[in-house]
Amino acid sequence: NNNNNNNNNFGNNGGSNNNNNNSGRMGASSGGESAPSGLGAIWAAYNAALETKPILTKALTSLVGFSLGDILAQKFVSPDAEFDVKRLARMAAFGFLLHGPVGHYFYGALDRAIPGVEPLKVVAKVAIDQILWNPIFGVLFFGFIGAAEGKNFDQIKDKIERDLVTAVTGSWKVWPIAHAINFRFVPTSQRMLYINTIQVAYNVFLSFIGNK
Predict the structure, then answer these.
(1) How many whole angstroms separate alpha carbon 168 and alpha carbon 171?
(2) Which among 1, 74, 97, 140 is most buried, taking Cβ atoms within 10 Å?
(3) What span, in angstroms and rounded, lies between the C-alpha atoms of 191 and 188?
(4) Nearest to residue 33, comparing CAs of 10, 6, 65, 56?
């Protein structure tokens, strides 16, 4: 996975531009770089966390993505209803416990099985994600939310049979293009951040269909 090395390339050129015998200038060049600040520091810290604690970092990323999606759904899709904190907790828990960790392993395995960013490989990854993984994800989502609501097996089964096709076909309106960009340009380690950025809006749809 060569994409994982992209984040280490910044800052390595500052000391090599003036390759001369002036040791004072070389010393200043190598030791005078300032640490990133503001958004740069946050980005650096996030990438460091991806290296040291990838599963936890991606789980927390998905927790934020699913929480924001549900908040937006409750505020704008059902603005007249009382805000449901338990519903928010269920969506956040799904992001933290399943979406982030499972996504870490799935996309890591997919990148190992089909390495590279050539067009045919990108198409293959998108097809696997949308034809195979998408329905599995839908079953996991409806199953988790239903169990968290206290529904029994038959109720969860009915929910899946009633809404899975809607969820899958709704996904096809968003994710094929989004994942084409994902698999072509985004490093493996940052896939969950990219997915959750897109998924904040998509989670509004998921939250609505999952809790109706």
Answers:
(1) 5
(2) 74
(3) 5
(4) 10
